[in-house]
Amino acid sequence: NAGVTQTPKFQVLKTGQSMTLQCAQDMNHEYMSWYRQDPGMGLRLIHYSVGAGITDQGEVPNGYNVSRSTTEDFPLRLLSAAPSQTSVYFCASSPQGGRYQETQYFGPGTRLLVL
Amino acid sequence: GQQVMQIPQYQHVQEGEDFTTYCNSSTTLSNIQWYKQRPGGHPVFLIQLVKSGEVKKQKRLTFQFGEAKKNSSLHITATQTTDVGTYFCAGPSTSGTYKYIFGTGTRLKVLA
Lengths: 115, 112
Known about the structure:
The structure holds two protein chains of two kinds. Chain A is mainly beta.
C-alpha cells in the first residue's frame, strides 16, 4: 500500500491564481481531511469528509473548496490564492473518524508559496 | 473557543538528558493522541490515551493523561538524536464529532 499520497510536493503561485492540491489514499478509509501547518500554530483543520459525497468545514475553511467523488480521492482547491495561504498542507485519512478518534495517517505534505 | 496549548514551544537538550512536553486543553477531552513529526516530514501517530490518569510506555517514552482529562504529558528518558522533531498532542474538537484539534507542538532539538 502506498498509504496517503499528495501532489505536488512544492508549488509556487502568484496572488490570484488557482490550483488544486491532490490527495489520494489506498487504504479504503472513509474519513479524509486537510490541515495546514504554520510555524507556532500546529495543525489546523481546513475541511474534512466522512465518506464519498460528504464534506464539511473545519477550523479554517475560508478560501478553500473540497469535493469527495470517490473514497480514494480528496482534492483541495484554492480558488484565488493569497499570500496568507502560504503554508504546508497535509492530507490525512483514518478508517472512519469519529467520537473515539482513530489514528490519522498523514501524507507527505505540499509546500505552497504564494507570492 | 477550544484551545490546546503545549509547553514548551522549543526545547534543546544534550543527548542523554530527559525531556518533557506538556499538553493543556481548555476543555475536557474524551481521549488524546500524540504524534511525532521529524524535520521536513509528516506527523506520525505515536499513541492514544483514553482513561483518566492513564499511563502508557513505549520504550523510553512515557505518556500520561491527567485525572481531569484536560492535560497530558510526554516524557522521554535519556534522549537520543533520533528523538529530534516536533511532538503534537491532538484531541476531539468540541465543535463537531469528526473534528480534531491539534496542540501547538513542542520542537525538540537534541545536541550530540
